[in-house]
Amino acid sequence: MAHPVVHFEIGCRDLDKTGKFFGELFGWQIQRNGPASTIDTGSPEGIPGHITALGHEPQHYTMFYVEVEDIQGCLDKAVSLGGKTLVPPVRIPTGTFAWFADPDGNTIGLLKRG
């Protein structure tokens, strides 16, 4: 299976302020959708994304998500290569996600749809 980058996320403290900023800067359409705001970049190219305010640290971050078939297996492999699990697999309406840190401390998301 290929492992494409399939989603991006922007963390913030204030969804409305951050959405307004990116909407005005890039012309993105930002739509509030529960605890997050979805981003429509207006192009069929690129990947979808969202803005979220977690209400706790980390407050400010950008992240990309890589699609994988086996989230726990990928986390285990990342750890064996010097990474660290940050958020174990979490079930969400669109599938399952997890976060890990690479050996330099960069946070990367994993996503399994469905």
Short structural summary:
Helix content is 19%, strand content 45%. An 8-stranded mixed beta sheet has the order 2-3-4-1-5-8-7-6, with helices on one face. The chain is α+β, with helices and mostly antiparallel strands.
Shape designation: globular
CATH architecture of the largest domain: Roll
Task: Specify the structural class.
Answer: alpha+beta
Radius of gyration: 15 Å
Helical content band: 10-25%
CATH superfamily of the largest domain: 2,3-Dihydroxybiphenyl 1,2-Dioxygenase, domain 1
Query: What percent of residues are in strands?
Result: 35-45%
Descriptive report:
- The protein folds into 2 domains: 1-63, Roll (2,3-Dihydroxybiphenyl 1,2-Dioxygenase, domain 1), CATH 3.10.180; 68-114, 2,3-Dihydroxybiphenyl 1,2-Dioxygenase, domain 1 (Roll).
- An 8-stranded mixed sheet has the order 2-3-4-1-5-8-7-6, covered by helices on one side.
- It is α+β, with helices and mostly antiparallel strands.
- The longest helix has 12 residues, at 15-26.
- Helix content is 19%, strand content 45%.
- The protein contains 2 helices and 8 strands; from the N terminus they run βαββββαβββ.
SSE blueprint:
Layout: E1 5-11, H1 15-26, E2 29-33, E3 36-40, E4 49-52, E5 61-67, H2 71-80, E6 84-92, E7 95-101, E8 107-113
Write out key terms for the chains shown:
single chain, 114 residues, alpha+beta, 2,3-Dihydroxybiphenyl 1,2-Dioxygenase, domain 1, 2 domains, eight-stranded mixed beta sheet, 2 helices, 45% strand
